[in-house]
């Protein structure tokens, strides 16, 4: 039952992870802009893995500034901790 209920969301997550694994960051950003809940995490992680943590930080700060509800504050804190910017 749960798999049917969340199937479309899981598909977006799997697609986002696939894009990240193949380094297709621009497509991943487009997906993150439309499917925030499922694609922001893989997008931020992909940027961080590519050495573009500053860009990931700016993206999360923009989401927070736009007052989008969600876990963006904790994602930003996690990113900053991983970068040693406590």
Question: Please, could you describe this protein's structure?
Answer:
- With 86 residues, this protein is mainly alpha-helical.
- Helix content is 78%, strand content 0%.
- The chain contains six helices and no strands.
- It has helices at 2-5, 7-21, 25-34, 36-49, 53-65, 72-82.
- The longest helix has 15 residues, at 7-21.
- It starts with a helix and ends with a helix.
- The model has no long low-confidence stretch (mean pLDDT 87).
- Our Rg estimate from Cα atoms comes to 13 Å
Helix content: over 70%
**Average pLDDT value?**
87
Task: Identify the overall geometry.
Answer: globular
Q: What's the short story on this structure?
A:
The chain is an all-alpha fold and 86 residues long. 78% of the residues lie in helices and 0% in strands.
Q: Which features does this protein show?
A:
86 residues; 6 helices; globular
Give the arrangement of secondary structure elements:
Blueprint: H1 2-5, H2 7-21, H3 25-34, H4 36-49, H5 53-65, H6 72-82
């Amino acid at each position: 039952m749960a798999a049917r209920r969340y199937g479309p969301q899981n598909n977006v997550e799997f697609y986002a992870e696939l894009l990240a694994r193949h380094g297709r960051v621009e497509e991943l950003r487009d997906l993150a802009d439309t499917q925030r809940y499922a694609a922001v995490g893989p997008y931020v992680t992909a940027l961080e893995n590519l050495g573009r943590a500053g860009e990931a930080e700016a993206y999360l700060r923009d989401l927070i500034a736009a007052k989008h509800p969600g876990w963006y504050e904790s994602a930003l804190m996690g990113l900053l901790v991983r970068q040693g910017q406590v």
